[in-house]
Structures are given as C-alpha cells and as structure tokens.
Amino acid sequence: MFEEAQYFAPVATRDDGSIEVELGAGHPGFADPVYRARRNAIAALAVGYVPGTPIPTAEYTDQEHEVWALVSRELGLKHHKYATAEYLRATERLGLPAERIPQLQEVSELLEPLTGFRYVPAAGLVPLREFYGVLEDGFFHSTQYIRHHSTPLYTPEPDVIHEVIGHANALASDRYSRLYRLAGAAARRVEGKEALEFISKIFWFTMEFGVMTDQGELRAYGAGILSSYGEIEEFRGMDIRPLDIAAMGTTHYDITKYQDVLFRAESLEHLEDVVGDFWATCDDESITRLIADVR
C-alpha cells in the first residue's frame, strides 16, 4: 500500500538544525507526542549517517520491540501458508530475531556474508535513481522507525518491518538478490525519466508485489505482500495476470490501497528469464519501443 522510495512523511531540517518528520493528520501517530519525538530522533540518525561507517544504533523502546515481536510472529505463520519456497528458505538462512527489532547494522552483518547486500539508513524520500541504482552495488536504503503501537498490523508508510521482514529475507536469497542487482544496473543504464519509471514499475509488480505459481498454488514473493498482515490474505483474490514486461511497465497502480492487479510468474525460472533478462538488457530505446507498442 505504498511505494518503495516514495515515503509519505516528508523530513524537514529546521532553522535550529533539528529534524522533524511531518506526519499527516491521518497518521496513527499524529497526535502522539512521544511517537513523534521518536520519529524525529530516528530520522536524525539517518540524516547524520556517514556512508562507510557503522549504521547508527536506534534505541528502540520495549513497546516498539513488542510491536515487532507481534507482527513477526503473525507474519511468520502466514508466510508458511502464502510465501514461496525460495523466500522461506532465505528467511531460515538469514535468521532474523523474532522477539526484538534488529539494528540495520546487524541486518547488514547477517546479509553480507550471504549475498553481499548491506543496508543504508534513510530518513525519508530517496530519489528513484539513487534508490534503485545502488542496488547494483548491493546497497538497500531502509527506514529505521517502526509503526505506531496502536495499529501494530497496519502502517501507512514503509517501516522497518516492511524493509527488513519483507526485503531482507528476500535479499538473503542468491536468486532474488541477483534480481535486485539487475534492477539497479538497469536503473543506472537508462538516462530518461520515462525509462526509469518503467523500470521502477517492473520492480513494483515483481519484487514488491510479485506472485508466482509455486508448490502447485499461487504464492507471494513480493516484499509488499509478505510484510502486510492484511494484504497477504487478499492477494489470491485479485486480478491475476500473466507476467508481461510491457503490461507491468505501463500499468497504473494506486499506492494507497491493496493492489488489485498482480502479475504471475509460472516459476522462479520464469521470473528470471522474463524479468531478469529484461533488466539485464534494457535501455532507453528498447523501453521506448515497448511503451509505443502498448499505446
């Protein structure tokens, strides 16, 4: 229900140098001064981060750890029912803590020996080209804050649960992580805005909201589905379409609601052949032709 690299809460630096996360009036934490102060402090950690140094530690509260433990437990049960075998193997391989929020530095130290990926803290908006481009180098931009405790099974914006349970588990897979890197290489290769947005839509309909035939049934591998307590129960009832590059790259989606159009790969090999090969070879000219064919 949100787009990676498009964060709903703008982050502002005030005249006195302080950092403020501008939550919307409909945000569950809008009227909670303690939560807002926490969000500001955690955003300041990312703003002050120096690339190449250890990621600053976010001092999470017991209440925040409890939210993680609850969601981690509930999602874990649903993953066995709805997630692909590759995602489940990668989850076991990574071994995230279930009872506490892991620090991003810790996630990096778990991931890097497996697939070379490392996390980079993000305070707020990350431009598309930067977010996708560094994937080629094995870097993943991630928020550090966690959703408001009053709605532990819902968040209006990507939080550490989405970024880590959704993406880090996938990034622990050699095969999924290769697709992330190919997406990054494609984003760096193209020059035009239209081509970059086309690539980002392919990412949206695959690594964020991808589904595939697996173990004889429709299962999810996209981080947006696998980190959403509600959406994971609904995806099988959506408009499921065949995996198609031109269709995915030109299909409009609404980030504020459950995704009602999803694209199905017939297997992981099919995903690699279609999407992986596209990201490995696409350029501005080839994407322009694909868009023209649809129009």
UniProtKB/TrEMBL annotation:
<dbReference type="InterPro" id="IPR001273">
    <property type="entry name" value="ArAA_hydroxylase"/>
</dbReference>
<dbReference type="InterPro" id="IPR036951">
    <property type="entry name" value="ArAA_hydroxylase_sf"/>
</dbReference>
<keyword id="KW-0479">Metal-binding</keyword>
<keyword id="KW-0408">Iron</keyword>
<feature type="domain" description="Biopterin-dependent aromatic amino acid hydroxylase family profile">
    <location>
        <begin position="1"/>
        <end position="295"/>
    </location>
</feature>
<protein>
    <submittedName>
        <fullName>Phenylalanine 4-monooxygenase</fullName>
        <ecNumber>1.14.16.1</ecNumber>
    </submittedName>
</protein>
<dbReference type="InterPro" id="IPR019774">
    <property type="entry name" value="Aromatic-AA_hydroxylase_C"/>
</dbReference>
<dbReference type="InterPro" id="IPR036329">
    <property type="entry name" value="Aro-AA_hydroxylase_C_sf"/>
</dbReference>
<keyword id="KW-0503">Monooxygenase</keyword>
<keyword id="KW-0560">Oxidoreductase</keyword>
<comment type="similarity">
    <text>Belongs to the biopterin-dependent aromatic amino acid hydroxylase family.</text>
</comment>
<dbReference type="GO" id="GO:0004505">
    <property type="term" value="F:phenylalanine 4-monooxygenase activity"/>
</dbReference>
<dbReference type="Pfam" id="PF00351">
    <property type="entry name" value="Biopterin_H"/>
</dbReference>
